[in-house]
Amino acid sequence: MASAYTPGLKIVGKTRFEKDRKLPMKGNVHVKKGDRITAEMVVASTHLPGNVTPMNVANILGCEPKEISDFMVKKQGDQLKKGEVIAETPGLWGFFKTQVQAAITGTLENVSTVTGQVILREPPIPVEVHGYVDGEVAEVYPDEGIRVATFGTFIQGIFGIGGEVVAPLKMVAKGPSDVLDAANILPEHKGKIVVGGSLVTAPALAKAIEVGVKGVIVGGYDAFDLKEFLGYDLGVAITGTEDKGITLVVTEGFGKINMAKKTFDLLASHEGKKTSINGATQIRAGVIRPEVVIPLEGVKEADLGGGVNMGMKPGTLVRIIRQPKFGAVAKVASLPEKPAHIPTEAKVRTVEIELLDSGERMILPRANVEIIEE
Amino acid sequence: MDIDKIESILATDCGSTTTKAILIEKRDGEFRLIVRGEAPTTVEAPVEDVTKGVLNAVAEVQELAGRQILNDAQTDLIKPRDKAGRGVDLYVSTSSAGGGLQMMVTGVVKTMSGESATRAALGAGAIVMDVMATNDGRLPHQKIQRIRHLRPDMILLSGGVDGGTTSHVTELAEIIAAASPKARLGIGYELPVLYAGNKDAAALVKERLQGKVALDFTENLRPTLEKENLMPARHKIQQLFLEHVMSHAPGYPNLMKMTDVDIMPTPGTVGDIMQLISRRKGLTVVGVDIGGATTDVFSVFQGIYNKSVSANYGMSYSISNVFAEAGLENIMRWVPFAMDERDLRNRVKNKMIRPTTIPSLLEELMVEQACAREALRLSFDQHRALAVGLKGIQQERTIGDVFDQTMTGQTLVNLKDLNMLIGSGGVLSHAPRRQQSAMMMIDAFLPEGITQLTVDSIFMMPQLGVLAKVHEQAALSVFDKDCLIYLGTCISPTGVLKDGAVALEATITMPDGSTVKKTCKFGDLEVVPLPVGQTARARLKPTYGLDMGNGDGVAIEAEVHGGVVGLIFDTRGRPLNLPTDDGERIKKLQSWNAALNLYPKN
Fold first, then answer.
1. Which CATH superfamily is domain B3-97 in?
2. Mean pLDDT, residues B44-55
3. ipTM of the complex as predicted
4. CB spacing of B321 vs A236 below 8 angstroms
């Protein structure tokens, strides 16, 4: 029987979710394998070297770079307070001294007699890594971090904005085709992750930030509104570090697109539960998609479904991911063996699909459908 | 290895998403492409071993070729071929997997050693993330922040002519030391820094960076203001790429054992094959490879090779950036129907987030090809700015140059001197009609005079580039016979006339001796069929106000080459001005599309 490999985004009701929680450089891990942790718990921490401030001492003193070691009051490795004198000229009979004061509080790291430059380094910057989801420490990477594991619902989005957020889930849309508008956002949504349907409008997003909503999960978002929201036209899909006061997870794509019914129903079934979301997206080598994780109590390995469905065969549920009928859900009717011509005249591998809502049959490039993983 | 005994060659290119394998064999005394196979690249989790993707691509090759190349366990190549004819004699590979080689370069003066360092890095196949210079306007702490933020794979530190001042380049070394940069590829990996600046400052640089980074030295890439010496730095970069970057990438140590020559960065090999073609055929060449994430442009003018990498212009991952940089109006000017801005923005962004989808409707294809024209144009603009003569040098002037106010650092790219334009990459190689490839290249590059147009049939230039290092004859034979598809010749006078005025009188003597006479009007596009492999003699007389290369209104005679499209008379003028009124613009685009039979009629 014909089959094809077209992986889709994961939308799984019960799964084992694992994620590395690593420091940007070596540090201390505060938990051990098997520990139960919460999303808010600090699991590892370190100190990044502080920012550096170069000061051209030779220029300030008006001397040759090679002479500065004669005028340095502080030496390499000394601790400094902002405003403290680090170099001075002897002046004339003790008067008319020229002094150089430390621009920051920190350490004197380097004195260069070639460039006349002195490098001051600020105190180390503490960095903490949190658990992100309620779960268990599955593995410890010594000095680097951990791998957290949990059982629960896992939904991958297609595009997102903003970083990790943990909050209770609140269904605002009544159905997957509802538009999330400003009037739907209420003060009681403060501190929650709200779920919309086919679109979140620009005024709705602005209102959400205003009332203190922590995150929005929605089917579609307009590319024009994204430009206005970010203040620039996003060129490359690498996101996650935006500081907009909210995290957005788009599940389907740009424009008004109904949220997949399965996604919507799953979210609705977990209303009120503690949910972890991350808008970080990287569509490059090493693709990262935004995600929604809802840890569930009492789920065991034995409750999980089979492996990931990587193959497409007649009967497989797919979603159309490009015009025509973008966003529609269909089932595979057949997988023609030979490449065929499509309306552009390109000769490509195709799939025959049957739309779930109308029963209409269409031939599409295989590249333009993705499996709905169950 | 006895080159004369080689009869079967396997070459792979490990791209960011796909690993492509080609099998080349000697048949009837000449090397030809036999089959091509591909498989997803396996650098990322869950496989994290590049050799797996290579073996999968080779498995497809052996299936299509109908003979065994891998051992029975499918874990390695049979090499050399055994008595039963299994295996291959030679295996070579290139790689751009994992984002290729990403470098930061430094120089004392941005437009002098900074530019030279950029050219050295690009020529070695790198993507230049940033150029840091003493005079780039940034404060030291901003430079330090930038280095920490970028996390390059390698830094090229240059600056200062030999015997010149040492303090500026030493300051750059101090900035790098203060930033204490960490490489992209993990915690335990020391960042390679290559010093190629003033030789007198080498000891000072060593003092500052030794022990903090993996420091290496090579000759000064700008030993005097008048001279660039890029080759030692290029070779060293490629060596460090293998020793440091590649050896840390998943599976590469094994792949390095399998290949007969060093693995090379993909863009470097494409440049090598372009140079070889230019040298062998005595042509000036511009080549372009438009990918999903990046677009590389190569040129050889006056015997000088230049390469640029536009890291964020491409047709899938970077399509939204093309849109952002070109602007809505520039994209829309190539779309031959009316379209709503919101709709267009959503389509472009949806392609960005689902990069593997393909246009299945004609209007979607037209929008993608409009974006391709702008991606190519922007990349070519960047290339022109980079492919320049050395800046800051003293020019000798004679009395004849008194009125010639040329500056140093003029672009070397002169379209009137261009003989051949080579297009490559999915949107050009796989366009449903070859006319579409020709038209995208003409609209983007706006060739002037007489220019031959070609496309790489299946994008095999990277493999041929690395093959040329060991077996030039095989690489050239396949390049000529299987790689290039000759589209035809574009004939385009420069200058502007009134629409509808007579622009060009052409008399073409066809290979069979017959004569075709043509009167081309300004603002039109026309095609005269001339099959692949045939040449004709053309006398081209432009109207006064237009120039075919010999001066205003002066006729030229030249040999023109045929192709699958034919001879394209482009008398739309240079610069090309499209009507500003939407209705008129659409009508004009539709008439040009019809003239070239660009799209299906309905």
1. ATPase, nucleotide binding domain (3.30.420.40)
2. 80
3. 0.86
4. yes
